[in-house]
Amino acid sequence: MDRLAAAGTGLCGRAAHRPGGKRGALTFAGNADALESLSGIRIVPDRTGWPASGMLAPVGDRRQPAKALDETLRAIAVRYGARTADFVAMQLEYPGPRASP
Q1: Residues of the chain with pLDDT under 70
Q2: Which residues pair with 48 in a beta bridge?
């Protein structure tokens, strides 16, 4: 797992789901097995059995971090609307492609 892709996806998801500056993030997985990053850091999920419909983007692959962030912002736009995706990108100070004109 690429830590930067995981972090970008996680930050983006946290910004979308925890407005108002609330702190904290949770990890979800299909089972309780730990994932290991490319540098050997083990990430143990906080919760298991989360439905696939609740996931924004997988992080266990080898996507480039910026691509992972773009894909996550697109998923947020589909689920919550382009304005929400743009707001999340603004919170992260991300200059990537905007979801709305």
Answers
A1: 1-26, 50, 52, 54-63, 98-101
A2: 29
Helix axes 82-91, 65-80, angle to 10 degrees: 140
Residue (of 47, 50, 61, 68) closest to 5 by Cα position: 68
List phi, psi (to 5°) of 47.
Answer: -140, 150
Q: How far is CA 34 from its chain centroid?
A: 18
pLDDT for the residue 81: 92
State the pLDDT at residue 15.
47
**Coil/strand/helix, residue 86:** helix
Q: Give the CA count within 13 Å in the CB-facing half-sphere of 19.
A: 8
Got the DSSP string for 27-65?
Answer: -EESSSPPEE-TTS-EE--SEE---GGG-----SS---H
Mean pLDDT of the chain: 71
